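Quick illustration for those who missed Monday's session on complexes.
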Amino acid sequence: MPRLNAGIASFSSVVLSCSVILAPAPASFSSEGPSPIDHRMTVTLVPTAHTLRVRDTVTFPMTRDKAVTFLLHGQLHVSIETPDVILTKEETNVRPSSIDPTGRYTPQDDRIPVTRYRVLLPPGTMIFTLSYEGQINQPPIAAGDDYGRTAEDSAGVISSDGVFLSGSSYWYPTFEDQDFLSFTLDVEGPDGFGFVSQGTRREYSRDDHRHLVWHTDTPQDEIYLVGGKWVEYVRDEADFTAYAFLRSPDQALAEKYLSRTGPYVRMYEALLGRYPYPKFALIENFWETGYGMPSFTLLGSTVVRLPFILTSSYPHEILHNWWGNGVYVDYREGNWCEGLTAYLADHLMAENRGEGPIYRRTMLKHYADYVTGSQDFPISAFRERHNSVTRAVGYGKTLMFFHMLRLELGDQQFIDALRTFYQENRFNRVSFSVLADTFSRVAGSDLRPLFAQWVQQTGAPVLQVKNVRVEQQGKTYQVRARLEQVQGGTPYHLRVPVFVTAEGEGQAQMQPIVMNDRETDLALTVASRPIRLDIDPEFDVFRRLDRAELPPTLSEAFGDTHALFVLPTQESPELREGYRRLASAWKLTMPDAQIQLDQELEALPQDRAVWVLGWNNRFRREVERSLTSQPVQLTEKDLVLDSARIARQTGSVVITSRAATPPFNAIGFVATETAMAIPGLSRKVPHYDRYSYLAFTGEETKNILKGEWPIISSPLSVRLSDPHDARHPIHPPRKPLIAVEP
Ligand SMILES: [Zn+2]
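Prediction with zinc ion bound:
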């Protein structure tokens, strides 16, 4: 699940050699993981008082001849119930490291006090019981920012609104040498409250009180307990139960999710192997989240009602039961599960819509816009997403790596490797090294250098094409060119798809060019006169894109942390103050940004992105000038584009372009006549950062227009005959890894 404040652990570098003998598959492994420590807990929750009372019987899988230590929330009062077991408080205000020696990652929150206890068991004893009670109340607060997407996070809260307890809450004894755990929770709470945890549920009544019992014997990383006043919807599938828990009755909404759960689970079973849990529950959370836990997902009230979530976040969270919550991540070498899940969910959905190239281009654009200079880091240092930089590397670069691996191996071998990886490692905690070994074994070749190149190295290749020429040879033509990697450091091993479009041919010819050096000469033969040459036009290679390959979009202007906001002097005080507040809000994610009045400036600076605010801004004409090559007209009175006319009196407009001179920095323009619309713009526009232009109407800032400028020229596309031929190379779309049921 996405949480905050990832630490960066050191990792030992893998020594590479060309002729490594690959380790065979482990001779014996338990497909259901190692023996866990078992917790049998009765839990009573009093949300109005923020308290819990727990009786926990702990069973170790083997006898302990030494004392064991565990961590527990510091405000819980503990007593031991088993005779002859000695409990001592060892240390208060413990600061556990976020990655423990077994590779498990537990995000740490300074607001949760943690105490270490020592337990000494009599010889031969494997079981003991302890009781504890107290308050856990850390309501969700804003944590991290993702360019306007404010995330809230809690490390544990028991309240009338709802209950959220996880490993980070230290609400159960966490043994420091423990690898995995299993549990039975018998939960009792006030009337109207429901509770969910991992595994299967049964229920019973005692003294007129409803008890919910959640049980799992498959090894788990942590114990979740979430609660709320929910309406429950159920659907039985062939070998699991689908649930929807909503905060208000909504049969239609529940039906939407329940009817998709079975098809998604079956699709991933067909692709990867058996779903590892007896249920999957959609739970409406009491704050805005998009968390995927083992056998359930917690989505906020707004998120759960967004129509596109059903085909984006929902399959993503379901797939986390294979990656992250089925095969666990050993975080010591980095987090592989987010990129793999995004590749097989978000990218798969896009590929099924025929939009794979657009999706990949967006990933590369995020990297180009947000990951600049010293902000870059290797995938091996990724733990979780907490801003646009970590998203671009941890999700974007990682999913592009899996895409390149697929192209290297071919679809069938790629799928075989994933299935093998899942089957061999279910309920175990594994690292990138295990992935590399498994893929190498299935492919029959050593892929570890490829893993090292993408996982451990910082940065990305930059491609250029030179010396393009056409030679006629009898009846055929040969396109010759030199392909170069111009980034610093060691050249990458790359497989670059090269497209040639020839006269009279309906489709481009594609040939992958393998590059192991800085320069590679290519020669492609075609039967008729070639029209154009395109290097990686479908964005199959993770690389730093040239600005000219991309339409200018808002993310470029948001990505420059040194941006300058230019306020209009000639504007009503109300509007000017509105723009100032908008600039201050956006500046929170741009620590070095500045705000100035237009009258204080001679000219717009050329060395940074600028945001020109207001119709009456002195520099509006500069914005107009920067737009001359785009199909748009910005005038005194209105904005005309996409055959739409946005009148200045009623609409709010947001436009991006680039400065006319190198380094072609981004220019953003925000203008409205409605001061009441500015707070809405301030909040909403960052969510539209992949667009080039936007228009909104009214004080409620309803979006009425959004779009991207066309790409005018790419340095990796060379027109060989007509220089003005703007047609894109046509190539049949790649078959998706698996078809998504409509
Ligand atoms: Zn995820």
